[in-house]
Amino acid sequence: MHFIAISVNHRTADVALREKVAFKEDAIRLANVDLFETKSILENVILSTCNRTEVYAIVDQIHTGRYYIQRFLARAFGFDVEEIKTMTEVHVEDDAVNHLMRVVSGLDSIVLGETQILGQLRDAFFKAQEEDTTGTIFNHLFKQAITFAKKAHNETDIADNAVSVSYAAVELAKKVFGKLTHKKALIVGAGEMSELSLLNLIGADVSDITIFNRTESKAQRLAEKHQVASAPISDLAAHLSSADIVISSTSAESYVITNQMLEQIEAPRKADSLVLIDIAVPRDIEPNITALPDVFNYDVDDLKGLVDANLRERQLAADAIAERIPQEITNHNDWVNMLGVVPVIRALREKAMTIQSETMDSIDRKLPGLSEHERKVVSKHTKSIINQMLKDPIKQAKEISTDKKSNEKLELFQNIFDIEAEHPYEEQRRKSAEKLSHILSFE
User: Fold this and answer.
1) List 19, 25, 30, 50, catalytic entry
2) Where is NADP(+) bound in this sequence (predicted)?
C-alpha cells in the first residue's frame, strides 16, 4: 500500500485556476465517495479551500493511483488530464507525510503559520471518515497530523505575530489599547483591504464598527454582509469625535482625514486616544497629524516594518516546527510497519493458546481427580511456560518490522511457526479487486 498526495496550490496555479479547481462545500462528500469508487484507491481524503485543492490517498500502485486521481480531478472540473498534471504537485510516501504535516501546521500556506488550515483539514478528514472513505492508515495518520499541528502551535509563537497589513493594523491598535472589546472602530473604504481589516476587527471582538465609502451603496453592502453599521462619507468627521480606531484604505487622490478635521473635534472628543491607521497608497490620512495630543498615526511603512519583523519571527518558529517533522515521519513508518507484525503476533499467540487449551483438555482426561484449585495451578503454569517461550519470538517479530526485507522475513517467520496471518489491508484489497472487476465490466 502506498501514500500519495496530489496538490493544486498557490505554487502550482494562479488564483484564477485555483478558483476553477475547487470543490464547493456541499460537493465534498459526494466527491470523496466518487473517488473512493475509483480504481486503485483504497482510502482518500479531499481538502478544498480558497488556496488549495488536495487529494490524499492510499493506493495499491503509485503510478496507477496518480493517474486515476488526476483523471478524477480532470473530470470533476472539465480539464484534460494533461492540464491537471501541469497544475499539480505529486508527493509520495515519506514526502507525502512531510507535505501533510507542513500543510496542517501552516508551513505551506500563503500566510506562513496561519491556523485556519488546521480546522479545514480536520473538517475534511471528518467528512471523509463519515463517508467511510478512510481506513486503517488515514484514521491514524490524520489524527497524528492534527495532534502534531496543535502541539506545534501551542509550543511556538508561529501564529502570534501579524504578517498581513490588515492584521498588523489591528495588532497595532491592541498595543495602544490592550483589549479592543468595547472600542469604537471606523473603516474608511469598502474594498478588499477594508474587508480584511473589518474581519480582523471582528476577530478581536470589536462590535461597534461603522463603514464609510464615497459610494455609499458599497459601504452598505459590506456592512450588511458582516452585520455592522455604515454611514455616508460626509458624516466621517462627526464620528471621529467618539472613535477609538480608524482604518482607512481608499483610492482617493487627496487626504480623507486632515488636520483640520481633527481640530474640529478636539473639544467635543471624549475618547482618550485615537489610533489612525492608513493602509492606502497614496495616503488617506494627512501626515504629521498634530491636532490632538493622544493621536497615534501609522501608515503603510510603519505596518510593513512590523510585518517584516513578525515574518522573521514566524520563520524562526516555522523552522523549529519543520525540524520536528522527520520524527513524525519515523513514528508513522514505525506504526505502519507494525501493522504487518500485529496479525502475525496475534496468530502466534492464538496458536500457542490453542495448544495450551488442548493440553489442559488432555490433562483433564488423564487426571480426572484434580481439584479445581489444582487445575487452576496447572493452567497458570502452562500459560506461564507459553508466555516465556513466546517472549523472544515476539521480540524478534517486532524487530523484523523495521527491516527493509520485513515482508520476506515475516513470511519466513510464519512458515517456521506454521501460522497464517491475514494482512491488515486484506479487506481493502478485496474491495479494490471488486472495484476493479466492476470497472472493467464497463470499460
Assistant:
1) 50
2) 189-194
Residue in 1, 37, 38, 325 with CA at minimum distance from that of residue 136: 1
What is the spatial distance between Cα 172 and Cα 296, in angstroms, rounded to a whole number?
10
The strand pairing partners of 246, in sequence order, are: 186, 276
Note whether residue 315 is domain-resident: no
Do 123 and 173 belong together in one domain? no
Indicate left, alpha or beta for 16 from its phi (over 0: left) and psi (-120 to 50: alpha): alpha
pTM of the predicted protein model: 0.63
Residue type, 364: D
Q: Which three cell numbers stand for residue 437?
A: 472487476
338 is in an annotated binding site: no
Does 414 count as an annotated binding residue? no
Dist. CA 77–CA 74, nearest whole Å: 6
Does the active-site annotation cover 437? no
Q: What is the pLDDT of residue 222?
A: 93
Residue 340 annotated as binding? no
Task: Give dist(CA 50, CA 68) in Å, integer.
Answer: 24
Residue 290, φ and ψ in degrees, nearest 5: -130, 5
Instruction: List, for residues 193-223, the tens digit of each pLDDT value.
Output: 888 889 889 988 998 999 999 899 999 999 9
20 and 84 belong to one structural domain? yes
To the question of whether residue 49 is assigned a binding role by annotation, the answer is yes
Q: How many domains does the chain have?
A: 3
Q: Is 193 annotated as a binding residue?
A: yes
